[in-house]
Amino acid sequence: MNGKSFPSLIFTGAPVRGDIDGAVFRDLKMDALFSREALSVMSGICPESDLPLRREIFESLSESGAYAAFRSLSGAFTDAADSDALYRSVSEKYPGYRSFLFAALCRKFVSACKAAAGFSSDARLFARFSERFAELTSSPEFADLAAAAEKCADGSDLRLPFSFVSGADTVSFSSGEDPGLWAGIDPAYAPEPSRADPEFADQVVSLDGKLLAAALEFHYAYRKIYETLSDGFYSYSDEFRFIAEVCGLVFEAKEAGLPLCFPELTQSRRISAQNAYDLTLLAKGEKNIVPNDFRFTAEEPFFFLSGANGGGKTTYLRNVGVNVILALSGAPAAADSMELCRVDGVFTHFPADEDFEGEGRFANEKRRAGEILARCGDQPLALLNETFSTTVEEKSRSETVALTHDLVEKGAFGVYVTHTSGVSADRAGILVCETVPDGGNTRTYRIVRADGGGASRARDVLKKYSLDAESLEKRLSRRGVK
Amino acid sequence: MMDFSLLYKVGEHAPPCGSADLLLLRDTFEKICSDPVKVGIFTDTIDRPPELEENVRYRRGIIGDLSADPQLARRLKTVFARYDRMRDDWAETRAAASVDLAGGAAPEVCLEAAWSALRRMAAFPSALISFLSEISEITSGDRVASDGLKLLNSRCGELCRGELKTLAETAELFRFSSPDTHEIEVSAVFDPYVGGFTGMQVAGVRETEKKKRGIAALLQKRAKSVETSEGEAVETAKRLAASAAKDLCDLFASRIGAVYGEFYGISRELCFYECAVEYIACLQAKGVPFCYPLIGADGGTEISGLRDLRLIASGEDPVPSDLSLSGGTRGILIRGENGSGKTTFLRSVGTAYLLFRAGLPIPASEARMSVGGGVFCHFASAEEDLCAGDRAGRFEGEARAVSGIVDRLRPGSVFLMNETFQTTSYEDGTAAMRDLLAALGGSEVRYLLVTHLTGLFDPSPEGAACIEFDLHRHKYQYLNRERTSK
Hints:
The complex is a heterodimer.
Chain A: H1 22-27, H2 36-42, H3 51-60, H4 64-89, H5 95-117, H6 124-137, H7 140-151, E1 162-165, E2 170-174, H8 198-205, H9 209-229, H10 237-255, E3 264-265, E4 270-276, H11 280-283, E5 292-297, E6 302-306, H12 313-328, E7 337-340, E8 346-349, H13 361-375, E9 381-385, H14 393-409, E10 413-417, E11 428-435, E12 443-449, H15 457-464, H16 469-478
Parallel strand pairs in A: 3-7, 6-10, 6-11, 8-9, 9-10
Antiparallel strand pairs in A: 1-2, 4-5, 4-7, 11-12
Chain B: H1 19-22, H2 25-30, H3 36-46, H4 53-68, H5 70-96, H6 107-121, H7 124-138, H8 147-161, H9 163-175, E1 182-191, E2 196-207, H10 211-221, E3 225-228, H11 231-263, H12 266-286, E4 294-296, E5 301-306, H13 309-313, E6 321-325, E7 331-336, H14 342-357, E8 366-370, E9 375-379, H15 380-386, H16 391-406, E10 414-418, H17 426-441, E11 446-450, E12 464-469, E13 476-478
Helix pairs in contact in B: 3-12, 4-5, 4-12, 5-7, 5-11, 5-12, 6-11, 7-8, 7-9, 15-16
């Protein structure tokens, strides 16, 4: 439940946070795709039993009308939250001003609650949410607050001109109509409103004694009722953002022609995806994103990945990490298909900035690797990027192999990008960045098993630029010319 | 407000095709028009063919008016060039008028600075009206028959009579005002939904001498009033008055900017028309037949007696050719010995498409063509410079370029290829081109391909006509009956 009495939008039980560390999102560049609030939600791994319910949510919002209704609901909650924050930011030294703000806030709160009660969806978690708000809005306290807020002036129609005489240094305030200097000018070009400071605002709103008295009375009578009714209400903000941002990403991916799928849950130890795309490349405006497969099994849960610089190794790590995290959040992954077993944590070990607080780079890497080993459960995903590359090759090799061995023993799935030659470990396969086999260094950005065969050079280049027959058909169809 | 344009009756953003350079049009038109700046603008414009037939016809009308009265083109060009300069003066004034009220300056300093900027900006609306009146006068009466110039005339008149007039009258109130000599009235609106007390606006200004009468009359009309001379309120009021003056100045600036924005750049568009008039005069002087193609809606093209403009501009007398690319014929494969005229033919076709779609006549005796979709070229010779290096790099460069064009194809697009995919093995190049032509053949794109990949001709792709150029006659003959696609 959110707060005291509001059910979560995305958990059947108590919301979970913090399973995945913030550094993981930064390493995987997910902060380019999602806000801090949405990532905070994604830091909690969705319980397996809730995954189908999350899927219902995202499926229900895949249609643009339903998504628009959701955005409207989310907007009502955001408006109320902004209004609440504004109200709380104004000092009690300005009671008149605060009272008008409170009246406006209550109207927004009432409006958001009613929108939530009326939000219709087949998704079970949404239905539970609506039911709770239907219950709230039919309560006598809520009805009383709603009726009183409706009656109380919120000052929105209060127009207060003042005259300023520079020479005499006097100010005249007066209520009434302004002289209409702007009649005849397109309102679109009227000056943007600017906010006065609370002191001045308080002074001006005090001009209309009758309205002010009503606002003060309303504030006094309903402040506590509002605090009780709204307790926990504002904790929806992160969940709304999470859902909206995932849906936004889904629409963006669809527009870019990327495939999307909900992973099939499996009880076997297996994570696999076909033609998976690194979504963070979308945020960079990449157009020709090259898909890759990944497959981690009980027999081969771990891979070393090596190859030329710029061949797509780090992109591959992000591809795996981002899609697994999306899947663990109940969101669709960017792949043709995906299978996912239970994963109890995601860890990354990427090169850190040159700030090791007295320890050397190698010691820092070693310590961070130790922390991962200490924290990981019995089935985590670990993504390591050039860990232990800052020492002599022999030491690097032995540390790399030892760490991999420990992770595999812990039950981890993972990929370890390394330039160190000759690394091998039990149940760890070898992946390489594919290059055009002509002696040159032309990259295809495909990651393949080291023992995989190569297709013809021209075919690979054509495939890379989506100029093979199948891709051409799809592209021209997408552009509406077929 | 939408920007007014002499190139587009209906607003559309036509991105550059990048074909004008590959077809050497800049060089060609520099032989026709002596001003390289105008030629640059002209070729940039024809490289962005409009998608809408309405815009093609719109341009044809304006070309007709300006060809009939070259003096009209010159007068318009002069006035709009002055207009652009005045707009630049406004932009400078606007930049100079930006007042920083957030700093620590005293309220009276802020107020004086804001008011000074307001006075300067208030001078522009009336100046703008006088310009628009002049443009309206030039394009009035029977001088023009085209939609474009008639619309220009009526839009200028509309602005002079409407909102801009009100704005100019309002601005006059502030041109000679000052906080020292005038009483400033500011209105404000309490809006709790956006954060409290908002909407500071200068609501009026009047000379201080009239203050007693003015304010007294004003206050009498209002139910409640409070007058204060407390230092704090006065300081706040000064800041708010400065802020309101700045808002007002910004309002004048943005409103004037909107009008300037509406016509800014017309002088550049007129360069296109000047060059178009010279192009037509050149064809007439050389006795080259030219025509405005009939506009068809089926995406097809039929041209008779097409001549290569580049050869015409160089003083040669090119062999005319015909082109039939309509009905079930989706593309044409062209082969022939080096120097037989394949590339010249391809260039003349590409040039004709760009000229026609830009609203210009083409050097042919008669034609029927369609609008929309863009004209795209891939000339392998150009790629060589970009991708000098090993064969892998060159082929990849070609694939990248072709892929970029595929991304831009739309229904009605024309895709011209010159020796594409010949930087890899013959076998791979043929296979790759077959895939591409098969995809294009089933689409609403028309293509022409000059190639030495002779394997493409037997069997020829579905819907492709195959022609071979004769080295001696620079003419082509068909190698196959058309194989049409549904």
